[in-house]
Amino acid sequence: MNMRSTRSTVTFSNPFTLSGYPGELPAGEYELLVEEELLQGLSFEAYRRTATYLTVRGKGRHAGRFELRAITDSDLKKALSRDAALSQTSNHSEAALPPQEDGT
């Protein structure tokens, strides 16, 4: 069976949570690892996703370590959507706008 792994980076602008895991993760960049297997018997090359992992860095006494947290594509999309909505809300709030200068 032929497998491939793809790494990419996702960025969260706000602290976030993942379904199935306790606690909140800090805002920042996270490495995403996607594993796929080659589908056999087709007249063209196609892959099926078998696993998705988010790399979470340890903190405190676990600094320097990392953990691969298995997540679903839909949980990742939900977390990124919540982050985008929260960022958009805070960018459009009056408190986030700079004070208006008087042009006179």
Count the helices. How many?
1
- What is the succession of H and E elements? EEEEH
User: What's the arrangement of strands in the largest beta sheet?
Assistant: 1-2-3-4
Helix content: 10-25%
Describe the structure.
The chain is of the alpha+beta class. Helices cover 18% and strands 36% of the residues. About 6% of the residues have low confidence. The longest helix is centred in the C-terminal third of the chain and has 19 residues. Strands 1-2-3-4 form a four-stranded antiparallel sheet, with helices on one face.
Briefly characterize the structure.
This protein is α+β, with helices and mostly antiparallel strands and 104 residues long.
Task: Identify the notable features of this structure and list them briefly.
four-stranded antiparallel β-sheet, 104 residues, single chain, 18% helix, alpha+beta
How are the SSEs ordered, and which strands pair?
Blueprint: E1 3-12, E2 28-38, E3 47-57, E4 66-70, H1 73-91
Antiparallel strand pairs: 1-2, 2-3, 3-4
